[in-house]
Amino acid sequence: MSVSASITPFNSPNPPSLPMILDTLPDPAIAGQTCPPRARLQIDLILLAIEALELGSSEAILAFAQELELKGIIKDRVNLWRMRSSNPMRRAHIRRPLTIMEAKALVVIACYIARRLTVVIRQMLMICQQMNDKQIPLEQNLRLSNYLERFRVHFKSRMNVRRSGLLALSSDEKLDELAINLLGQLLFCTGTAGMQRFWISLFDGEVE
């Protein structure tokens, strides 16, 4: 081995270190380092539910990216849109992969926002259960009604409802069920090791 080959040039850039928070999520044992379609859809849906829960959530996502030192991955609004448009069920689907690192960043931020909204999410799920028990339409509760309506509008405007994977969600009733289910997932994310368990659930059936 030559002396010159063993010396690292002074001007060689060091590879950027990844934020330590991403190490809390294990790398899935899948081929390559890109997310399968189902995981991309689920991450996008969880973010869609957050958008329906809280106005200005896109700004919140970027703010958390800054706070959690994830700006190197989620750089700006356009970059965030490109990541979410990797979801094959989107109208504006972009044929690009969603890397495991990008997916981890989105999941971490979604879970941090969910933790901030824990009280609201828990209250809405309790109200939903009480109204279902009494067979009262959910639309009669203003907070729930607003959430469900925003979720339906977001879903219909952004998802390609003609795709075979979404045909079962063609009615408002089915979309409301999905929206409530996503509230349950968000609450799940706020629990002990919830972020890790949600992350692992994205790859159920995908792991080799």
Architecture overview:
With 208 residues, the chain is mostly helical. Helices cover 56% and strands 0% of the residues. The chain has nine helices and no strands. The two termini are 39 Å apart. Pfam families: DUF3038. InterPro entries: DUF3038. This is DUF3038 domain-containing protein.
Residues in β-strands, percent: under 5%
Number of helices: 9
Structural class: mainly alpha
**First CA to last CA: what distance?**
39 Å
Radius of gyration (CA) equals: 20 Å
The average pLDDT value, as a whole number, equals 86
Low-confidence stretches: 1-15
Pfam families: DUF3038 (PF11237)
Organism: Atlanticothrix silvestris CENA357
Protein name: DUF3038 domain-containing protein
How are the SSEs ordered, and which strands pair?
Layout: H1 3-6, H2 37-53, H3 57-67, H4 77-84, H5 100-116, H6 118-133, H7 142-158, H8 172-189, H9 194-201
Helix pairs in contact: 2-5, 2-7, 2-8, 3-5, 5-9, 6-8, 7-8
Produce a short descriptive summary.
The chain has helices spanning 3-6, 37-53, 57-67, 77-84, 100-116, 118-133, 142-158, 172-189, 194-201. By secondary structure, the protein is an all-alpha fold.
Key features?
mainly alpha; 0% strand
